[in-house]
Automatic annotation (TrEMBL):
Signal peptide: none annotated. This is RNA polymerase sigma factor. It comes from the Bacteria. It comes from Splendidivirga corallicola. SUPFAM superfamilies: Sigma2 domain of RNA polymerase sigma factors, Sigma3 and sigma4 domains of RNA polymerase sigma factors. Belongs to the sigma-70 factor family. ECF subfamily. Residues 127-171 form the RNA polymerase sigma factor 70 region 4 type domain. The keyword Transcription applies. Residues 24-89 form the RNA polymerase sigma-70 region domain. The lineage of its organism: Bacteria, Pseudomonadati, Bacteroidota, Cytophagia, Cytophagales. Keywords: DNA-binding, Sigma factor, Transcription, Transcription regulation. The keyword Lipid metabolism does not apply.
Amino acid sequence: MEDSYEKRLVEKLKGGCRKSFRKLFDTYHQKIYSVSRKMGLQAEDAEEVVQEVFLFIWEKRERLRSENSINAFLLIISKRLVLKKIRKNINNISLDLFLDKLKGSVDNNTEDYIIFSDLEAYSHIGLNNLPEKRKQIFMLSKQHGLSNDEIADKLKISKRTVESHLYKATKAVREHLEKEHINSDIKRRTGNE
């Protein structure tokens, strides 16, 4: 994109011009998607990054500076969002692996069974404190194994709303477990300190 054209586009966008926003999207969305994929995201996550980048641009359009490269700015935002999503995925995978390991290590040993039962009970207490819609979405995902798209279709809500509820639910349960000192208690009992 030509430098002076890019500057005019950004100036119009700052004023709320939807056509300029659309032109910017049409010009850069594939590049952002490709960068996200090259950084290791799955197609669905890369599409979310594209949406989040352009949502950010639209919401912050008045603060854009036409003298700066919009291309560089979009790539910086994209890379930050990709790294954030990768960190989130790692945290979710770590929690799932920990729970799978804990579940897999539970045998007839009474102490292991008690630890697992305590963790499950505290998790349910944390789940029961969630708003009803958030709890429903969390259960559809974690207990019934539905994808975010399937949950969105089933509940007639957006996929983004599903993701938001899942993030908040996971955070609330994790905070509840930390508040109850479950994580440190489990590590102490299992010798994983």
